[in-house]
Design brief:
Two copies of one chain form a homodimer. By secondary structure, chain A is of the alpha/beta class. The first copy, chain A, has two domains: 173 residues, Rossmann fold, CATH 3.40.50; 108 residues, 6-phosphogluconate dehydrogenase C-terminal fold, CATH 1.10.3660. The first copy, chain A, contains twelve helices and nine strands. In chain A, helix 4 packs parallel to helix 5 and helix 7 crosses helix 11.
């Protein structure tokens, strides 16, 4: 199933990688692109990620069969207002935001309802590196893409979007938007916040620059990899999904407080039990992590 | 400089990898080994990691020029008592424990002082996989090994140990034991505790097995990799280095409480500042992380 004209609004790691992947798969014709950051857009054009660099989001989406919106989640509403004038009745519009309820709310804000041809999506893929310069066609291969269909969803439009994601090598699953937000608060949003907070805390220690960070090893590197992620993107995500993240953060603080008490009173068996449970659970699920 | 006879007491990931590395480098003759776990020892013998499987720690170290003690840190004192009868006056004894003050205390407990030919060491290398089956000769290549010399240190003995580590491809540096423990509480011990606590917290969520872990992605996998580490080993480390770890844990809890407040009062600029600082600090130091 060919998509003659694709428009990508937001040419970062995800938008750029999607464009590269569907082009490589041969399932799209022309790719038009727009990014508010001229440097990103020119880089995308120079690298052949897009065929046409538009002067506005509305221009980019004109005549497009499918529009992929790939901006930080809090930029969704503004981007939708900007591209709206270029949409035709048949255009399929989809997004890649990490928080789905906030995106659906932005869509309702702009369109007055959830249009049948709006498909909410979220690829469970990414790296800590941002920007179109880091985009690559294989980013989604073997990973899941979650679609969170709404009540008025057009099934054919959903199939088109699912087909494009399948062409990138991803596996498409569907999920309720609220459930999605609760689950990813736990598996993705909170760990990002914890990693940022950990590195920030370390940076305030005496001797941080001279002695602490220079003695970090492989465990530290992996544990903090996600703390190199885009601060803007993750600020948006925490803000857009604040309630579930905040609730989980309170649970994490309570658990850490409990562990602090366990250490201070020397209850080493309780400490060992937590470590053993964590290892067993992770090992049990590891084969299922993409 | 050849070490005719090496003894390795504790045939896990570190002891096994050290034996493989120095053998590959051609800097040792015979390698005798002992592990209280007969399965580990037979595996080490079958894989050619050691040449001789001894019946006791004392037997393993008999006639050895260098003894590498590679047991969980809280097993140090018992292991030293067990191997002590086999030591000769010229034997060089070294260890690989992640906490140096506790190891030095155990040595004093057993020998009544810090023997000149005892060299405290800590290779900054490892994986989340434990056991001799996961040992490999390249584990230490390009990583640091920290020696924490004491006042009565025999310089020649230190050179022999440093030479063996250099032969594994590691870079040897020296550091004060107390400073070592404070630094690694921050860069290694606390992150392990945080990773264990995070996975443990998630495992208690409703729907953890059915929905939460199956939706984990690459960020989760790296953030929690160290939560697959040996619970026994890390229980020992937290217990052996409890004071600095506890102090840092309290700082981390305070910072997370502050972030929780920041989110609840919607101070998004403060959140962004923490994220930006963390990313900048990590990126600045990344090239120096082994």
């Amino acid at each position: 199933m060919l998509t003659p004209r694709l428009a990508v609004v937001g040419l970062g790691l995800i938008g750029g990688s999607f464009a590269k992947a569907v082009r490589k798969a041969g399932v799209v014709g022309t790719i038009a692109g727009f990014d508010a950051d001229a440097v990103q857009m020119q880089r995308a054009l120079a690298d052949g990620v897009i065929d046409v660099a538009a002067n506005s989001a509305a221009e980019a989406v004109q005549g497009a069969d499918v529009v992929l919106l790939a901006v930080p989640v809090l930029a969704t509403e503004t981007a939708l207002r900007e591209l709206q004038p270029g949409l035709s009745a048949n255009t399929i519009l989809t997004d890649v935001g990490s928080t789905k309820q906030s995106v659906l709310a932005a869509v309702v804000e702009v369109f007055g309802r959830l249009p049948p041809r709006f498909i909410a999506g979220h690829p469970i893929a990414g790296t800590e590196k941002s920007g179109v310069a880091n985009a690559f066609a294989e980013l989604f291969r073997g990973h899941r893409v979650i679609l969170t269909p709404h009540a008025d969803q057009d099934a054919a439009a959903q199939s088109v979007v699912a087909g494009l994601w399948t062409a990138t090598g991803a596996r498409v699953v569907t999920m309720d938007a609220a459930r999605h937000d609760a689950i990813f608060a736990a598996t993705s949003h909170l760990p990002h916040l914890l990693a940022f907070a950990f590195v920030d805390m370390l940076s305030r220690l005496e001797g941080a620059d001279a002695e602490v960070f220079p003695n970090a090893g492989g465990g530290f590197r992996d544990f903090t990899r996600i703390a190199s992620s885009s601060p803007r993107m993750w600020h948006d995500i925490v803000r857009a999904n604040a309630a579930p993240i905040s609730a989980l953060l309170r649970r994490q603080i309570a658990e850490l407080q409990e562990l602090s008490d366990v250490i201070d009173r020397g209850d080493w068996q309780a400490l060992a039990t937590v470590f053993e449970n964590a290892r067993a659970v992770r090992e049990r699920h590891l084969s299922r992590i993409d």
